[in-house]
Design goal:
Length: about 325
C-alpha cells in the first residue's frame, strides 16, 4: 500500500499525462450510500488497501449492463439488467469482446446511442468505517470495516483533493487522516453528490477503530472484483450480448449458472461449486448491483450530414447483429 501522498500524486499525474485515458451484497459488507435520503449526509473514513502492491487506497471496477426484455418462461416478466465484467478491468492488454464490437458503432452517428447503452460503466471500490450513518439498515455486519462502491462523480472529488498541495497527509493515515462526507442532493431529477467533501480537520482513529483493524484486518480489495472470465464465460458473455441487442429475454437455462439478474435464484452454480471457493473467492465471483457507474470516455461519433430518415431501434439492432455475425464468419 502507498505510504506517502507523493506516490499517489505521482501515479495520478502519470495517468493524466497518458491522456486521461452479479450477485448481492451477501456478507452485508457493502455500505449502500446511494440509498440515503436526499438532503442526507453519510460520513465515512477510508482505510488503506491490504494489497502492498496497490499504490492507491481503492481499486477500479468496470462493468457492462446487458438489458433484457424479461425472463424467458416467466409470465408477466419485466425487463431485467444483467451486469457482466468488462475484460479491460483486468488490464489494458486484455481485450473486451463487447467493447471491440461497440467501438465500431461510434463510427456511425445513427448507432451512437446504442453504443453508449453497451459501453462500460466505471466505479471504484474503497473500504473504511461509517462514522455517521443516516440509513436504517436491517442488519450491520460484525466487522465494522465496510466496503464502498464509489461513483465517478464522487471519485473525481476524492482524486482532485489528493492533488491539492495543501494536503499534507494521506486521508487514510491512522493518526492524521480525514473523514469524508458523502452528501446526496438532486439535479435534473437524478441523484447528485457534487457537494461531498473532505473534513477540514485531521483526526486520529479511535481505540475502537484500531481494535477492529487488529481483529478483522484490512480487505485486499482486488478479491472483491468480479472473477475474471475464462474461455467459457467469455462465450456466455458474447451470447448474452447478442441476445440483449436482439431484444430477447434472459434465458435462465443457458446463462443462469454464470451471470444473472439481481435477486434471481437459479439454484446452485456448478461453476462456483467445483471446487468450493473460499469466502473471498465467492466475493470475487459476485457483481454488486447499484446505480453508481458512469460511461468511461465513450467514443464520440464523427460529425456527418444527418440522413433524411433515422432508423428505428429494431432496425438498428438487426443491422448490428448482422455486422457481428458477418465478422464472426470471417
Amino acid at each position: 500500500m502507498a505510504t506517502t501522498l507523493a506516490e499517489i500524486r505521482a501515479k495520478l499525474a502519470a495517468a493524466e499525462n497518458r491522456g486521461s485515458t452479479g450477485s448481492t451484497n451477501g456478507d452485508g459488507g457493502i455500505y449502500p450510500h446511494w440509498n440515503i435520503e436526499e438532503g442526507s449526509n453519510a460520513k465515512v473514513r477510508f482505510l488503506p488497501d491490504a494489497d502492498p502492491k496497490n499504490t492507491f487506497f481503492w481499486v477500479e471496477r468496470a462493468l457492462i449492463k446487458l438489458p433484457f426484455a424479461g425472463i424467458k418462461g416467466q409470465a408477466d416478466s419485466r425487463p431485467v439488467i444483467v451486469q457482466v465484467p468488462c475484460m479491460e478491468m483486468y488490464g489494458k492488454d486484455t481485450p473486451c469482446p463487447i467493447l471491440a464490437e461497440v467501438r465500431t458503432w461510434f463510427k456511425d452517428p445513427a448507432l451512437e446511442e446504442m453504443g453508449r447503452k453497451y459501453w462500460k460503466k466505471k466505479s471504484y471500490l474503497f473500504q473504511g468505517f461509517v462514522r455517521d450513518n443516516p440509513l436504517k439498515e436491517d442488519r450491520t455486519p460484525e466487522n465494522p470495516i465496510r466496503r464502498f462502491i464509489i461513483s465517478p462523480q464522487i471519485f473525481n472529488l476524492i482524486k482532485g483533493s489528493l492533488m491539492d498541495p495543501e494536503l499534507e497527509n494521506l486521508p487514510t493515515d491512522y493518526e492524521n487522516g480525514l473523514d469524508f462526507t458523502i452528501s446526496k442532493t438532486s439535479k435534473g431529477g437524478y441523484a447528485d453528490y457534487s457537494t461531498s467533501k473532505w473534513a477540514r480537520r485531521e483526526t486520529a482513529l479511535s481505540a475502537e477503530d484500531m481494535a477492529a483493524i487488529e481483529k478483522h484486518g484490512l480487505f485486499n480489495l482486488t478479491e472483491f472484483l468480479p472473477k475474471k472470465p475464462g474461455e467459457v464465460e467469455l462465450r456466455i458473455i458474447k451470447e448474452m450480448f447478442e441476445a440483449s441487442v436482439d431484444g430477447q429475454e434472459y434465458d435462465v437455462q443457458r446463462w443462469g449458472q454464470y451471470y444473472k439478474p439481481p435477486g434471481l435464484d437459479v439454484g446452485p452454480s456448478t461453476q462456483a461449486d467445483s471446487p468450493a471457493p473460499a469466502p473471498a473467492a465467492q466475493a470475487r465471483a459476485s457483481v454488486e448491483v447499484e446505480d453508481v457507474g458512469d460511461d468511461d470516455a465513450a467514443p464520440t461519433a464523427p460529425v456527418k450530414t444527418p440522413v433524411a430518415e433515422s432508423k428505428t431501434s429494431s432496425q438498428k439492432a438487426e443491422d448490428i447483429l448482422a455486422m457481428i455475425r458477418n465478422r464472426q464468419k470471417q
